[in-house]
Amino acid sequence: MLLTLDLNDARPLHEQVAGAIRRAIGDGSYAPGDRLPPARDLADALGINANTVLRALRELRDEGLLEFRRGRGVSVARQAEGRALIVQRMRELLEEAERRGYRREDLIEILKELP
Predict the structure, then answer these.
(1) CA angle in degrees (0–180, nearest 5) for 12-91-78
(2) Collapsing DSSP states into helix, strand and coil, what is residue 106?
(3) Which of 33-37, 45-49, 79-83 has the lowest mean pLDDT?
(4) Does the residue 5 lie in any domain?
(5) Running DSSP on this structure, what letter comes out for residue 27?
(6) Is pLDDT larger for residue 31 or for residue 87?
(7) Number of domains in the chain
(8) Residue 114 has pLDDT above 80, yes or no
(9) Residue at 8 is within a domain
(10) How far is the C-alpha of 14 from the C-alpha of 51, rounded, in Å?
(11) Where are the beta strands (DSSP E) in the chain?
């Protein structure tokens, strides 16, 4: 699983991790039943604390995307809903736009201009 974090992003790290995993599931990189790498391995690869990754995984479990099985690790419970994936991406776009000086209304106008 290739995840990247933006250290300039104002969102908490656990939200970034959850978003990246949510996108990987939504994009089909992980299908229902697939096991995720252990939290410690993900944390080491990202250079963050394992508790941060665990917090993200628990958030996704609470959403119903992941399931925890004792002795078997964490696996994908279901495919990410299209709407949830779009909302996540839109939040990220809004945050990026705000960092670059655009307002929500500016984005709406840009969307209206698209074919």
Answers:
(1) 85
(2) helix
(3) 79-83
(4) no
(5) T
(6) 31
(7) 1
(8) yes
(9) no
(10) 9
(11) 66-69, 73-76
pLDDT tens-digit series, residues 5-29: 887 888 899 999 998 898 888 878 8
Q: Tell me, yes or no, whether 2 lies in a domain.
A: no
Q: Which domain holds residue 82?
A: 13-113
Residue 80: per-residue pLDDT: 62
CATH number of the domain at 84, please.
Answer: 1.10.10.10
Helix axes 39-46, 50-63, angle to 10 degrees: 120
In a domain, 6, yes or no: no
Instruction: List 73's β-bridge partners, or say none.
Output: 69
Residues 75-111 as b/e (b if ≥16 CB within 10 A, e otherwise) read: bbbeebeeeebeebeeebeeeeeeeeeeeeeebeeee
Between 67 and 24, residue with greater pLDDT = 67
CA distance 17 to 68: 17
Closest CA to 77 of 67, 87, 63, 90: 67
Q: What secondary structure letter does DSSP report for 92?
A: H
